[in-house]
Amino acid sequence: MKANGRTGLVPFITAGDPAPELTVPTMHALVAAGADVIELGMPFSDPMADGPVIQHASERALRHGVGVAEVLDWVRAFRRDDAETPVVLMGYLNPVEIMGVERFATAAAAAGVDGVLLVDCPIEEDATAAPLREAGLRRILLTAPTTADARLQRACELAEGFLYYVSFAGITGAARLSVDAIAERVADIRQRSRAPVAVGFGVRDADSARAIAAFADAVVIGSALVESLAGATDAAQVEQRVRAFLKPIRAALDR
């Protein structure tokens, strides 16, 4: 993407929402609409980093009995027709530890997962996530405006796949972006990190995505997309909603 001057588009969806049988069609629809990486959320009962939209999506998925095994089955099914688009699982440590970190890592790699973002596994507990790297998975790390300089440096040194910069101190879906402050911080991170920098939290539409694309390698967009998909009942409806939502953002990034 860098060689082609292309800003990455990383949409987030919650696995199992709006319905379990729509997860794989939604993933394919995201790629057709211009996604470069898919961030697939593993439903969890206490998603502390997420705002109400993604919290409710997790609740709906959990009511349908969606767990880690189902998520990996859907990645495997997606891979039957798409062997190229990177898939990053986003979630929390508890379900992974219940399954067993080594077992999870092996199963995720076998299913075709490329990377894992564990929100509540800090750098200080990096040894916990060692089986992920040993299985060939990238561990996607988070940094934020509040990250101390020493920890930021360590994250930049350990970053794989891409480094996820949280644009503000808060939860997903909030509608506030201080673009100048984000740009300054991202410039500092890009000087330290060999991995590309993706910016998320607060990106909601084409205008906010375009503003972030001026200085970031990729843009992550989740809550607004999840909200737009809520209540969809079939694959055709999902495809139409994904296209309507992502196409303007893809066009804005490509200008």
Our measurement of the CA-to-CA distance between the termini, rounded to an integer number of angstroms, reads 14 Å
Q: How many beta-strand elements?
A: 9
Query: What coarse outline follows from CA principal-axis ratios?
Result: globular
Alpha carbon gyration radius: 17 Å
Number of helices: 11
- List segments where confidence is low: pLDDT < 50 over at least 5 consecutive residues: none
Please list the strands of the largest sheet in the order they lie side by side.
5-4-3-2-1-9-8-7-6
- Nearest-integer average pLDDT: 94
Quaternary? single chain
Percentage of residues in helical conformation: 40-55%
Strand content: 5-15%
**Sheet with most strands:** 9 strands, parallel
Taken in chain order, the helices and strands follow as EHEHHEHHEHEEHEHEHEHH
Structural class comes to alpha/beta
Break the fold down into its secondary structure elements and pairings.
Layout: E1 8-14, H1 23-32, E2 38-41, H2 52-63, H3 68-79, E3 87-91, H4 93-99, H5 101-111, E4 115-118, H6 130-134, E5 138-139, E6 141-143, H7 149-158, E7 163-166, H8 179-192, E8 197-200, H9 206-213, E9 218-221, H10 223-229, H11 235-253
Parallel strand pairs: 1-2, 1-9, 2-3, 3-4, 4-5, 6-7, 7-8, 8-9
Helix pairs in contact: 1-3, 1-11, 3-5, 9-11
State the main characteristics.
single chain, 255 residues, alpha/beta, nine-stranded parallel beta sheet, 11 helices, globular
